[in-house]
Write a structure and sequence with these properties.
733 residues, 51 strands, 32% strand
């Protein structure tokens, strides 16, 4: 060595490429291919799927077994093969697989056998440490997925790692998944627990640390691919409704950071939420190494009396879970310390924790975990770990959670305000945009105030005014929007597509959704565009709005997309928030702070009608807590909205289905945005009295309240404009 440099010899593992094709046989959906010592098999599966396996040992294996893939799709037996000279072709109803002869390479094409889906540009290559697949990259091809990739949602030109790095910050990938999705119309899942590296350059190279290939390919657009992938590894679980309310976690027994306390002291914190009119769904009362708990049954009852559920942290395992659940535990948080590097262990623990809650109660399993693998969406909420607060912390989380949705992860989140540091302004900014994530929690008892250097708890009222009022505003808005978010959860459980979405997922033909500006905003469902403020500023620049008309949620101002909004005035109490034209948004009544105490006899609808055109929405409802919905105990209610030159018509269908606690009738409060004051408001053709509706010229919102109406019958609400005469002018003008 000399001057901090050295020379030496590095011994790299020798690599081997697949040689020329030596055998090809099969039929009825399954084909075996040989190239010297390499054996490969292509299985066409129903639903536009392909499983491709290859192993230079000559024997195909499946080390993952049923741990990730619970139920394999049936073979698509309607296939045929042909010899095209340079390659054998295998034709299915959805695609053609080319098996090139010299050397062995694979390519997947659309049924016309001309349009490329993906194409290997080099043969499979392997060494003692892994196997690589190399693909030609399309000129405009984009790549997404990889599970939770901290700070990113779009990966073209990047290297994506799939492993557990224990790096909680930007660039980390603790909840990564061996899956990616391409804008070319396919996605691929590597059926393995081995770490991987995916480089989306030219060419695209993907590989895992094992001498075998086991890849499931899914065909379709992005949402279809997400659906097929999650059908294979597990759809997102359906959470209890309290799981979509805020959670609070701390150590209440012998907490060295906060002095002597006891588990029942958690009830004082729950009282604080009620006193400040802030929703609280659940509490982890032992969130600290060695914390433990006492008076468990009394704590359970105390929390339930305060409309919250008990959660417990599993520091060293889940062997006590059955007894704890029978005592009233309804939330389980898994720990990184005993999960370690074992991805299968992490996934097994998630499945076991969910099952432990459900086997010992009638509740739905609700599990949080910081380390996971493909399939974790079926059993848990993933959160991005223990971070320190900064403006950068807020910034990079935005694409992280939106990007996780591209791998079928419906519930991905981070601690409000982080765990280790606290600042009142940053906390308020962080909370307001996380109110539009399905699941959130505060991690208390570990933070230090950035200004004073003193310990700082993280409950949303701790900083006093104006912060308490600002935080209450967004927590109550989150609570009011639970019918909307709960319906999105039901959709995710059915389709695999979660609520938090990068703009590209809804607007894949708009290149602006892949730009640097769109990276730091997201859609909450299809209707809300959220552009968080992630700097110490009262102005937000670079808000990208895709095509269509967008309404500012706070002012009613409309914008025509595609456009970029600069200089948006966003004081501390204002989250830049826009609503899509045509949106139909169900809400609980104003002032609601708990799903248990809400007025079940009122439902609000926030409507953004198009000047012309029809929109539809189907509300989903069930009892919110039990698993009876799996037996059909649920209800749906379809709402249609049509705008024309003469006004707006809203058609509310009957509520179809039944569940425990469903009411027979309810009133409806409609807020209809845009347009001029209606001349009349009619319910089923009969004018409502003027006292039943009002118009605000400043916000251009018409508010209508109906009488109590039976749920087993539908009705029509009509906001009628001025009558027109034959010349097209308003009568009397």
């Amino acid at each position: 060595m000399h001057d901090n440099s050295f020379t030496g010899t590095a011994y790299l593992p020798a690599t081997t490429d697949a040689g020329d094709l030596t055998s090809f046989s099969g039929g009825a959906g399954s084909y075996t291919i040989g190239a010297g010592r390499l054996t490969a098999r292509a299985d066409f599966l129903k639903g536009g799927q392909l499983r491709l396996q290859a192993d230079p040992s000559g024997s195909l294996s499946d080390p993952a077994g049923t741990a990730i893939v619970r139920r394999r799709p049936a073979l698509q037996r309607h296939t045929s093969s042909f010899d095209a000279g340079d390659y054998y072709g295998i034709r299915s109803p959805e695609a053609v697989l080319r098996v090139y002869k010299k050397p062995l390479r694979f390519g997947l094409y659309r049924p016309d056998n001309r349009t490329r889906i993906w194409q290997e540009d080099k043969p499979l290559r392997w060494s003692t440490g892994g196997m690589r697949q190399s693909l030609t990259r399309g000129a405009d091809e984009q790549f997404f997925g990889g599970g939770e990739q901290n700070g990113s949602f779009s990966h073209r030109g990047r290297t994506m790692y799939v492993a557990n790095s224990f790096d909680w910050n930007e660039g980390g990938y603790n909840n990564s998944q061996p899956f990616y999705l391409s804008s070319a119309g396919y996605g691929v899942f590597r059926n393995t627990f081995a770490p991987g590296v995916y480089t989306f350059g030219a060419p695209v190279t993907t590989g895992q640390q094992e001498r075998r290939l086991d890849a499931y390919y899914f065909l379709g657009d992005a949402k279809q691919v997400i659906g097929k992938y999650t059908a294979l590894v597990g759809r997102p679980f359906m959470p209890p409704v309290y799981g979509l309310e805020p959670g609070d976690s701390d150590c209440y027994l012998h907490n060295a950071n906060r002095g002597e306390r006891h588990t029942l002291d958690a009830l004082k914190i729950a009282d604080g939420y009620a006193e400040h009119r802030m929703p609280l769904g659940w509490m982890l009362v032992n969130d600290g190494y060695g914390c433990g708990y006492e008076n468990l049954e009394q704590t359970v009852k105390g929390l339930q009396d305060r409309h919250a559920q008990l959660g417990l942290w599993t520091e060293d395992g889940i062997d006590k879970l059955a007894d704890q659940v029978r005592a009233g535990q309804r939330v389980a948080k898994l720990d990184v310390a005993w999960v370690g590097n074992g991805y299968k262990f992490a996934l097994d623990a998630c499945d076991a924790a969910k099952r432990g809650i459900e086997d010992n109660s009638d509740a739905r399993g609700f599990v949080w975990l910081p380390v996971s693998w493909a399939g974790a969406q079926r059993c848990g909420v993933l959160w991005s770990g223990d971070q320190k607060l900064s403006w950068d912390y807020i910034r990079w989380q935005i694409p992280t959670y939106a990007g996780a949705t591209m791998s079928g992860i419906a519930y991905n989140t981070g601690d409000v305000g982080s765990i280790y540091r606290h600042d009142a302004r940053m906390y308020a900014r962080d909370l307001q945009w996380k109110a539009f994530l399905p699941a959130i929690m505060t991690m208390d008892g570990w933070a230090t105030d950035l200004t004073t250097g003193k310990p700082a708890d993280q409950q949303p009222w701790r900083d006093g005014e104006p912060y308490t009022s600002i935080n209450r505003k967004y927590l109550q808005l989150k609570e009011r929007l639970l019918p909307y978010m709960y319906t999105l959860s039901a959709q995710a459980a059915r389709t695999g597509v979660g609520a938090v979405r990068p703009l590209w997922l809804e607007y894949p033909d708009d290149p602006g959704t892949l730009g640097a500006q769109a990276k730091y905003e997201f859609l909450s469902g299809p209707d809300f565009l959220v552009a968080p403020v992630y700097e110490d500023a009262d102005t937000r620049d670079g808000i990208y709005l895709p095509k269509g008309t967008w309404t500012d949620y706070w002012t009613g101002r409309t914008y025509q997309g595609p456009t970029t909004v600069n200089g948006y005035h966003a004081p501390l109490d204002t989250l830049p928030l826009f609503v899509r034209e045509g949106a139909i948004v169900p809400m609980w009544p104003e002032g609601t702070t708990s799903w248990q105490t809400r007025d079940r006899h009122e439902l609000d609808w926030d409507l953004y009608p198009a000047a012309r055109g029809t929109g539809h929405y189907t509300l989903y409802e069930d009892d919110g807590v039990t698993r009876d919905f799996t037996k059909g105990a649920a209800a749906t209610q379809r709402v249609s909205m049509r705008g024309d030159a003469r006004g707006t018509t809203v058609t509310v269908g009957a509520s179809r289905g039944d569940y425990a606690g469903k009411v027979d009738a309810r009133t409806y409060r409609f807020t209809v945005h845009g347009g001029t004051a209606p001349a009349r408001v009619l319910l089923d053709g009969r004018p409502l009295p003027r006292s039943a509706w009002s118009y605000d010229a400043g916000t251009r919102v018409t508010t209508v309240r109906t009488p109590s109406l039976p749920l087993d019958r539908g009705f029509t609400l009509r906001l009628a404009g001025p009558e027109r005469n034959r010349t097209g002018t308003a009568a009397g003008s």
